[in-house]
Every structure is written in C-alpha cells, then in structure tokens.
Amino acid sequence: MKLSIILGTRPEIIKLSPIIRELEGRNLDWSLIHTNQHYSENMDRIFFQELNLPNPKYNLGVGSGTHGEQTGRMLIKIEKVLLKERPDVVIVQGDTNTVLAGALAASKLKIKVAHVEAGLRSYDKNMPEEINRVLTDHISDYLFAPTEKAKNNLLKEGIEENRIFVVGNTIVDATLQNLKIAEKNEHIKEFFKNISNEEGYFLLTLHRAENVDNKERLKNIIDAITKITEIYDKNIVFPIHPRTEKRLKEFNLFDKLKSNKKIKIIEPIGYLEFLILEKNAELILTDSGGVQEESCILKVPCITLRDNTERPETLEVGSNILVGDDKNKIINAVELMLNKKRDWKNPFGDGKSGKRIVEILMSK
Ligand code: UD1
Ligand code: UDP
Q1: Ligand nearest to the CA of 35
Q2: pLDDT tens, the chain, 364 aa long
Q3: How far is the CA of 363 from the centre of ligand 1 (A)?
Q4: How many angstroms separate the alpha carbon of residue 4 from the centre of ligand 2?
Q5: How far does the signal peptide extend, from start to end residue (predicted)?
Q6: How many CB atoms lie within 10 A of CB 284?
Q7: Would the CB of 289 count as within 6 Å of ligand 2?
Q8: In the sheet where 201-204 sits, what is the strand order?
Q9: What is the predicted pLDDT for the residue at 364?
Q10: Cβ-contact 313, 298 below 8 angstroms
Q11: In the annotation, is 207 catalytic?
Q12: Fold match between 2-169+349-362 and 175-338?
C-alpha cells in the first residue's frame, strides 16, 4: 500500500503530525506533498522544525490568491504529482482549500481519499471551510470522524456507514505529545517568562475570513477586546495571523490596538510556544477551530468569537461559549467563563487517533 499525505496550512501540519510520526515508525512507502498554501516561516517551516517532521518530497509553491486561483493552481499541480507518485490512498486533513484540491485531484484519478476530521458541520455555507468539508466528505472513501456526532452528520447526508470510522481527533495526540516536549524545553520556558506576567493573561487568536475581512465585525471584536483590558487587570496576548494583520492595517484599526499597553501583539508563534501559552492562560478568546479543541483538552475556558461552531462537543461539555461579534456578549462571557469549573471531559478521544488511522488504512 502506497500513501501520499497532502497538506498546506498550519493546522494541517499540526494535526497530521501524529499520523506522520506513526508512518515514520513503520516500514511503509509514503510521500509528503505540501501545497505551500501557508509559506511564511512562522506559519509553515517552524512547525516542521519543532515537530521534527521530514521535509516534504514535493513543495508545490501555490501560495495565496483568490479561492478559485488558489484551488485551481493546487489542482493542476497536485494532479501532476499524483500521476507520478501513483499512491493507493491520499490522506487529507480538515477543511482548507488544500484539502478540497487534494481530495478532488485524487478522486478524479481514481485514487482513494482518506479524510481525517470528517463529518464536522457548522451548517453555515458562508464559511469557505464548510463548502470544503462537505465536498471532501462526499468524495472520500475513508472518513475518519473524530466523534459520534460527526459520524451522525455524515450518516444524515447519506454516506455509507462502512466508510466511516470514529477514531477521535489527532489534535489530542498532537497536544499531549507536544505539551510534554514543550514543558521540558529551556527555550520555551524562557519565551514564557518573557511574555507572561504575575497578574495572569488572556490569550487571543483571530483569523476567520468572516470576522477579519468584514470591517464592522472586526471593529466590534476589537472594541470588545479593548473594553476587556479596561475592566480586567490582565494582559491580552495576541499572536496575530498574517491575514488579520493585513486587514487591521487596511481598516486603520492596527495602530490603536498596538498602542494599547495591555494588548501584546506578537508574530504567529511555534506550536510548542503556543501550547504553553494556552495551557497557562486564564481564558482564551478565539475564532480558530483547533484552538477551541485544544482549550477543551487543556482545561482552559474558551470564548468563541463566532455565531456557530462545527465543534458543538465543546459547548456541550461546557468548555466553550459562542458569542459572535456582539460586544456585550463578549464582555459578559469573560466573567462567566472565568468562573467556570474546569472539570469537563475531553470529547475528542484518547490521543491515539493517529495510530488508529494508520492501522485502519493498513488493514484495507
Ligand atoms: C486558511 C484556511 C482556513 C484555516 C487557516 C489556518 C482556506 C479557505 N482557509 O486561512 O480554513 O483556518 O488557513 O490558519 O483554506 N498569508 C501570509 N503568509 C502565509 C499564509 C498567508 O502572509 O504563510 C496571508 C496572505 O496575505 C494571504 C492571507 O494570509 O492572502 C490568507 O491566507 P489563506 O491561506 O488564503 O487563508 P487563511 O486565512 O490563512
Ligand atoms: N497555533 C500556533 N501558533 C499560533 C497560533 C496557533 O501554533 O501563533 C496553532 C494552534 O495551537 C492550533 C492551530 O495553530 O493547533 C490552529 O490553527 P488556526 O487557528 O490557524 O486554524 P484553524 O484551526 O482555525 O483551522
């Protein structure tokens, strides 16, 4: 059995790392294809270095662009590589344009598609990710659903049960494996010492297109964050996604944010650094998918700056709350979540998803 893994962005590198580690430990024929949808050092290379991942066999250099341009370039380039590699199965993870292009290129060449993190649904077609997820699931042969809920979403759409495997989410593997490494790392300890303070801090990430590309929504969120710094004696640490920095500058919101002494805007950081920042935060505010999961796993309360989530398990266990871009809701949620008892159960599995996925594929 010959496998190819296709990845392209920060969360895919992180969430596929447990599968890559698992493949490396076995004598298998496999290759790594990187679309380079993400390419900045701190959105890409840093994760290969910190997670000790092998260099991709193919770097397709696709980069940024409109959805059509980016996905189209990926399709053309991935097809060429797949015709050369001729894998039996292509593995993709998540819901980015890389995932859709990888799955589509493979399925048209009659190569089997394994979709890791299948079955997530926000039921919000305004999100490009929702379109990518639904389409990818419907052309996949092996659907690795993280939870029973995700499996049920797939069943409701008519996908055959024998294609679906509930295996947990590889983010649990990645979090647990790398937190241990991060906690022992002197460089990370030093990083943490420099960034944290005695009063404690909140952690913020923001990058969803529907939030940051919309001036009004972005302004509402920034206003709420600013108000929170006035109410609470806490810093807000904000590793800023390149998309968000670009938009804040375009909308003339960046300078005011930067001049707020309690908001620590930093470049995007490595996974080990980020895990330590998450683990020690009093509260996390985010619109990221992966961060909603990690905060749940690490027992840190989360406020999600979105109107919906494809991770409803986090709402059910009580680790997360949805507030959208409503200023009052965001501010009120801080008090609520700070008082939250951190005794919820992680619904995303036991940290052995990567192993399970490889074993299922090997048995086919
Ligand atoms: C993409 C995914 C999103 C995922 C996110 C993870 C799609 C449609 N979106 O969003 O689902 O949550 O990755 O972070 O696939 N840029 C850089 N350097 C980079 C990458 C991007 O500067 O390495 C800037 C460019 O200005 C680019 C913009 O960020 O135009 C957006 O990048 P893009 O890959 O299109 O989307 P993301 O917002 O990163
Ligand atoms: N992350 C990171 N450094 C950062 C911000 C996030 O390593 O500065 C990690 C985070 O731990 C999570 C992943 O990136 O595993 C989430 O990626 P992102 O929020 O970009 O995408 P999403 O999960 O929303 O698709």
Answers
A1: 1
A2: 999 999 999 999 999 999 999 999 898 999 999 999 999 999 999 999 999 999 999 999 999 999 999 999 999 999 999 999 999 999 999 999 999 999 999 999 999 999 999 999 999 999 999 999 999 999 999 999 999 999 999 999 999 999 999 999 999 999 999 999 999 999 999 999 999 888 999 999 999 999 999 999 999 999 999 999 999 999 999 999 999 999 999 999 999 999 999 999 999 999 999 999 999 999 999 999 999 999 999 999 999 999 999 999 999 999 999 999 999 999 999 999 999 999 999 999 999 999 999 999 999 9
A3: 35
A4: 23
A5: none
A6: 26
A7: yes
A8: 263-266, 235-239, 201-204, 283-286, 302-304, 320-322
A9: 92
A10: no
A11: yes
A12: yes
Ligand nearest to the Cα of 240, by number:
2
Q: Give the per-residue pLDDT at 284.
A: 98
Distance CA 290, CA 208 (A): 12
Q: How far is the CA of 12 from the centre of ligand 1 (A)?
A: 12
- CA angle 326/328/334 to nearest 5° reads 105
Report the nearest-CA residue for atom 21 of ligand 1: 38
Q: Which residue, 348, 364, 361, 356, is CA-closest to 169?
A: 348
Pick the catalytic residue: 34, 115, 207, 241? 207
* Topology adopted by domain 175-338: Rossmann fold (3.40.50)
Ligand 2 neighbour 191 (Cβ under 6 A): no
Fold of 2-169+349-362: Rossmann fold (3.40.50)
Tokens of 276: 């330590």
Q: Is 23 left (phi over 0), alpha (psi -120 to 50) or beta?
A: alpha
- What residues flank ligand 1, with Cβ below 6 Å? 9-11, 37-40, 43-44, 64, 95-97, 128-129, 207, 242-243, 246
Place of tokens 């944290």: 196
What pLDDT was estimated at residue 27?
A: 86
Residues in a beta bridge with 33: 6, 58
Q: Of all atoms in ligand 1, which is nearest to the CA of residue 290?
A: 12
Ligand 1: which atom is nearest the Cα of residue 99? 15
Q: Would you list the domain boundaries of the chain?
A: 2-169+349-362, 175-338
